[in-house]
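In this notebook, the sequence line spells out the residues, with the fold written below as integer tokens. This is how one looks.
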Amino acid sequence: MMFRRLFLGLALAFLATAAARAEEVGGTRWVASWAASPQPRWDGDFPLPVLAPPSLWNQTVRQRVRLSLGGTRIRLVLSNRYGDTPTTIGAASVARAGTLRPVTFGGKSSVAILAGASAVSDAVELDAPALSELAVSLYFPQPTAISTFHWEGLQTASITEGDLTAQADFEASTTTTTRIVLSGVMVEAPVAAGTIVAFGDSITDGAASTPDANHRWPDFLAARLAPLGLSVVNAGISGARLLRTRMGESALARFDHDVASLPNVKAVVVLIGINDISWPGHVFAPDLTIPTAAELIDGYRQLAALAHARNIRIIGATLTPFEGALKDTPFKGYYTPEKDRLRQEINAWIRASGAFDAVLDLDAALRDPDDPLRLRPDFDSGDHLHASDGGNQAIADAIDIGVLLGPR
């Protein structure tokens, strides 16, 4: 224990010194500070409501994001990943603490994002410290089908008529909690800065945490890592699975886009698989059979191989307890003893296999000592699946920074 604490102290001191030296010599790089993984829209053929408007026309959408790492210059990343036609943004702006800046793309106020593509803005001069909140406004001048979005935004966005991107405040005609087109914010940071990616499903996405409060576990981790010059990017998608696509592409299909394509990723924390186990035979996937342990293990091994091929450290998280999950909702049947036995088999493999560079045992961190198949009551949001705000804090606290970053 004493050696572990000494190692962690030395690691933290090294990071802080490296960040300070980089700042002194003036070296900088672009680092992902915030993200919302793009998802394809569904309509009418899935039990959950989409929540996003089907289209926008002559309307401004204002979305709020909280950065992890800060800087004095930022870039926006907009996504039309699942669109069939170009998406036109007629004007854009970003604001913080009473300061509003127009956003340009190649020197122009408008941009047409090609189908399947992303658009990155020009650098915007704006003082945006770590953990500060930005308001990003996008104007849609033409009839635009919303085919690329992020469902579990957990942040209230305002929508109103006309181009109001230059206005500091406006009254919303309607609101949404989804993310529309906006998929990332980068900051210019010291050259020693790097990114940690939280890659997973609804537990990582923050489902059941307090809306508009930034109480997802990656948010709490960001507060710990920002002083060390490290950003935390949330690449969770509610309903995401390791092997199959529905509410977002499978983890294997989207790893390159949502993790590996980000600049200077140091490590990725993977918490995914519970939906692969629980959806089959449930209203979300009534005709599917439960995957075998071997099929899931092959998927985890592939994720590890993808990470290692790009020199990214990968931390495998055990699947958290879920007895009684969603039982008092229209989605009952998510949990069965058979499914839980598979969860425990997978957890045993994650702990012992050596496939990952390190293991984050969230099953041990969140389970009820008196009933280990369930979440600890104060860590349970009430649906017996997702963490409460306190549970999200516990997840972030369970991450040993020295283990996260590995040998220096």
